[in-house]
Specification:
- The complex is a heterodimer of chains A (about 350) and B (about 290).
- Chain A has 16 helices and 3 strands.
- By secondary structure, chain A is mainly alpha-helical.
- Chain A folds into 2 domains: about 50 residues, no CATH class; about 220 residues, MetI-like (MetI-like fold, Orthogonal Bundle).
- Chain A has a 3-stranded antiparallel β-sheet with strand order 2-1-3.
- The longest helix of chain A has about 35 residues.
- A 6-stranded mixed β-sheet of chain B has the order 6-7-8-3-9-10, sandwiched between helices.
- In chain B, strand 4 and strand 5 form a beta hairpin.
- In chain B, helix 8 crosses helix 9.
- The two termini of chain B are about 40 Å apart.
- The structure holds adenosine-5'-diphosphate and magnesium ion (MG).
């Protein structure tokens, strides 16, 4: 008892904020949550900035501004203005030039072309949308992005249309679980891309085979995950409902389904992320399309700023969708978070009360 | 110590008031009758491959009676109430409600479980309305009735909250209101206060007595708490373990209305002593014991 009150007193002391934040499974307070969340993005970004902008961190190459006296022969006299040359090459060339007192090679230390700096990527995120593709007939970035989203949407849509009901059916009736799950378990170990050639042959060159790959990649996993989540609805709830007179059909619609829905919603969020991982495979089979095709082009032209821009954009699309779904979930399932109107009103009233009255009230 | 022991009355000595009370109960109609009830489980551990959870259980519950079943952990209390609820099938014998044999779960036998089985996605009011809704009643009358039940269990102000926002005691009160809203012939309660702390449990017992008197309902109540059984019940069915069987049915000699002061009355203590003798004699045998969680 005493130790308990001691610990509570100790954790209340502000002198150990770090120890408090590093508690085992101890929830962070709102402020800490916010700033640590900011840090999650700031840390990688700052490392990227440091590598890009602090000249003595990495920067293994020289962007040549003056090639020196190129008439002097030597192993490395190919160096020309505008080249990116490895540091040791420049040093050995300058040793040759110094020996005959010729003009040295000079330039700036830079990172390799494949590591673009934040401002270059930031600029590319704008210009990539406004610059026409290099070859006529190729897709703009926004067209590619839209195309990718379309493929994801339809692949995931059809997967959910069939996977959700089938999964709930399996999770509700052991009969159907036994009938479907062993075979689905067998199929899901086949990597979706192996169906690529087949999908192309059967479905032609349009979006259909790509949507099919996404479908195959998510559907089989979805059935198993949905059926597991459905099974996790407590049997005691079903029994309580039975003692309240629920029929079989009422059990399914009034207990199993509402009991499983918040979990299923979470599953869908995770599975949507999986659908994105199948996107690249899907888009590169047959006629290349969407973001993957665009990325492939940019890489061939060595527009690495654009490559990074596109990767960041995919990340952002994913993050924003997921956060949107998370917030929507809080309002869709108020019983999970306790966000009822009444509770919010009570909290607001508590806050509005002066401190003295609040103490007297409790 | 045994020298200055208080002289207790016999638990079989009923004062005239209590005698009259039981005579009156015997006039009432039988609501639940259990005849030669047996329940066996397959058990690879035991020599004959069978575990006899209940063997030849016989008793009757009359209208508005409050009956407790008490016994050591693992003696088959939950099995008994689940068979009555229709959630499990008996291996032999008959359970009948109003003379009609039980074949499965139904709204005529409302049940309150130990682990709060409220529907987390429904508000308190909608939880109470669940039974009527299953029957197809969803009019204002059902709504009003639900609010009446909430008032009886003292949760009017919490009607719009979700179960996760309630304390354990409140949850069990909602569960009681939810079962009663169905107007069951008998209310089955399986250690409903087992997970509550002592203070909450005491107040829940008082609540339950009040609700029982106000609602005029028949109750079959499972517990392993001797005080609880004596304080609440008209009769106590004492079960012994392995095989689960009736050791004795005790008519509680404590007059009604009950109050916590009676915990120290001679009749109360005498009954408790008898229960202790019956139960602890069995509990000390080597193959019993185990956890109280089922
Ligand atoms: N579904 C089951 N399968 C096998 N054995 C069971 C099952 N349910 C209960 N039992 C056994 O039956 C006995 C009685 O259990 P239970 O009715 O839960 O006891 P109590 O509620 O009195 O603690 C225990 O020994 C338990 O192990
Ligand atoms: Mg039990």
């Amino acid at each position: 008892m005493t130790s308990q009150s001691e610990t509570s007193r100790r954790t209340a002391l502000p002198s150990e904020p770090l120890a408090r934040m590093l508690g085992v499974r101890k929830p962070l307070d709102a402020q800490a949550r916010f700033w640590i969340g900011v840090l999650a993005f700031a840390l990688p970004f700052l490392s990227w900035c440091a590598i890009s902008y602090v000249p003595f961190i990495w920067h293994p190459q020289i962007l040549v501004e003056d090639a020196g006296d190129s008439k002097i022969p030597g192993q490395n006299n190919y160096i020309a203005v505008g080249d990116r040359v490895d540091l040791d090459v420049v040093i050995s060339r300058n040793r040759d030039l110094d020996a005959v007192h010729a003009r040295r090679v000079t330039g700036q230390r830079v990172n390799p072309i494949y590591l673009q700096s934040p401002h270059a990527v930031a600029r590319a995120m704008y210009t990539a949308f406004t610059t026409a593709p290099e070859r006529d007939g190729d897709a703009w970035l926004h067209e590619s992005l839209l195309q990718s989203c379309k493929v994801i949407f339809w692949g995931f849509f059809w997967s959910a249309v069939f996977g959700l009901p089938l999964g709930v059916l399996c999770g509700t009736f052991p009969f159907f679980a036994r009938l479907f799950e062993p075979f689905i378990d067998f199929v899901r170990y086949m990597p979706a891309p192996v169906f690529g050639a087949l999908a192309l042959t059967v479905l032609g060159l349009n979006d259909a085979p790509k949507i099919t790959i996404i479908f195959i990649g998510t559907f089989f996993q979805m059935v198993l995950i949905v059926s597991n989540t459905t099974r996790s609805v407590e049997v005691s709830l079903l029994q309580a409902a039975q003692t309240l007179g629920a029929s079989k059909r009422q059990l399914v619609w009034n207990v199993v389904v509402p009991g499983a829905v918040p979990g299923l919603y979470r599953d869908m969020r995770i599975l949507l992320g999986w659908a994105w991982t199948y996107l690249v495979v899907a888009e590169l089979i047959g006629e290349k399309s969407g973001l993957s095709a665009w990325l492939y082009q940019q890489q061939r032209y060595r527009h690495f700023d654009n490559v990074y821009a596109a990767i960041v954009i995919i990340g952002l699309v994913g993050l924003i969708t997921d956060q949107f779904l998370a917030v929507a979930g809080r309002y869709l399932f108020p019983w999970e978070t306790g966000q009822t109107k009444l509770v919010r009103v009570i909290r607001a009233m508590r806050r509005a009360l002066p401190q003295r009255a609040r103490l007297a009230g409790t | 110590m045994s020298d200055d022991r208080i002289q207790l009355p016999s638990y079989l000595d009923h004062v005239p008031e209590v005698l009259e009370y039981f005579a009156e109960i015997d006039q009432r109609k039988v609501v639940l009758s259990i005849e030669h009830l047996c329940r066996e489980f397959d058990s690879p551990d035991s020599p004959n491959g069978k575990l006899v959870a209940l063997s030849d259980i016989n008793f009757e519950v009359r209208r508005n009676e409050f009956i407790s079943v008490i016994g050591p952990s693992g003696c088959g209390k939950s099995t008994l109430i689940r068979v009555v609820a229709g959630l499990e099938e008996p291996s032999g014998g008959i359970v009948a409600v109003d003379g009609v044999p039980v074949t499965g779960p139904g709204a005529d036998r409302g049940m309150v479980f130990q682990n709060y089985t409220l529907f987390p996605w429904l508000t308190v009011r909608k939880n109470v309305l669940f039974g009527p809704k299953m029957k197809g009643l969803r009019d204002d009358k059902a709504m009003k009735a639900a609010d009446e039940w909430l008032k009886l269990v003292g949760l009017t102000d919490f009607a719009e909250l979700y179960p996760a926002q309630l304390s354990g005691g409140m949850k069990q009160r909602v569960a009681i209101a939810r079962a009663l809203a169905n107007d069951p012939r008998i209310l089955l309660m399986d250690e409903p206060f087992g997970a509550l702390d002592a203070q909450t449990r005491a107040s829940m017992q008082a609540h339950l007595l009040r609700i029982w008197a106000a609602a005029g309902v028949t109750v079959l109540f499972i517990t392993h708490d001797l005080d609880e059984a004596i304080y609440l019940s008209d009769r106590i069915v004492v079960l012994g373990a392995r095989p689960g069987r009736i050791l004795e049915v005790i008519e509680v000699p404590v007059a009604r209305p009950r109050s916590p002061e009676q915990f120290l009355s001679g009749h109360f203590l005498a009954t408790k002593k008898r229960l202790e003798e019956l139960i602890h004699r069995r509990e000390n045998t080597p193959n019993s014991g185990g956890s109280m969680h089922d």
